[in-house]
Recover the amino acids of this structure.
């Protein structure tokens, strides 16, 4: 459902810059994510319009803020086991990268916003259950390791858990199937992420962690006027 991304970006920006409308803010962001944050199909690397960073940068400029970003593509399990990350997200038409890993280490980059997410096909079981390809690792242990490492590098940094949205295997959906999709996104899907957030907070109580519940917010908007008129 990449067509929802422009609405998602608006809420990403709003939440990241909450309370800062009256003053200029400089955000230096690193993202641990996948295609629901940065969707540039093979051979289309110039399509920055399908990335979070591009649009947050545009909105930041309009609001008198500064936003730079880089990030790493992959799944959370792999990313949390390969730290420090090697950045591979760059935006020639968006913000300049906020970290040159050849010049300084992660802690020296002065990141003040970290965003990470989980895959959107592990929700068939609980966040404390092991991954399908591991006997020991769970979404919670992967997040714990990432969050604690990031905070050790940049103590007190703002860390955001990005709640994405469920897979839509068949498209377009019939009206009943689409209604079921939205009900799931706002119901059991969101419940999984709330539990995930609570479990992460339970093992990292000292970290400054917040969740951005994008999927359910966008789903709710898409089921109400006027956005429910979009084909």
């Amino acid at each position: 459902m990449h067509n929802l991304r422009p609405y998602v970006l608006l809420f990403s920006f709003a939440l990241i810059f909450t309370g800062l409308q009256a003053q200029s803010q400089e955000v230096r962001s690193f993202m641990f994510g996948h295609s629901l944050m940065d969707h540039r199909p093979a051979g289309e690397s110039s399509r920055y319009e399908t990335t979070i960073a591009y649009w947050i940068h545009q909105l930041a400029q309009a609001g008198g803020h500064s936003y730079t970003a880089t990030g790493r593509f992959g799944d959370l399990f792999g990313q949390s086991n390969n730290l420090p990350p090697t950045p591979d997200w760059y935006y020639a038409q968006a913000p300049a990268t906020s970290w040159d890993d050849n010049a300084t280490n992660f802690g020296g980059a002065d990141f003040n916003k970290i965003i990470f997410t989980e895959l959107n096909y592990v929700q068939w079981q609980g966040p404390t259950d092991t991954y399908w390809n591991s006997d020991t690792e769970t979404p919670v242990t992967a997040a714990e390791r990432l969050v604690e490492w990031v905070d050790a590098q940049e103590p007190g940094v703002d860390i955001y858990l990005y709640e994405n949205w469920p897979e839509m295997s068949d498209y377009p959906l019939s009206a009943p199937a689409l209604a079921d999709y939205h009900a799931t996104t706002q119901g059991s899907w969101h419940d999984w992420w709330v539990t995930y957030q609570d479990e992460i907070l339970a093992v990292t109580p000292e970290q400054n962690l917040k969740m951005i519940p994008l999927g359910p917010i966008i789903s709710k908007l898409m089921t109400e006027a006027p956005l429910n008129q979009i084909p």
In short: The radius of gyration is 17 Å. The first strand starts at residue 26 and ends at 33.
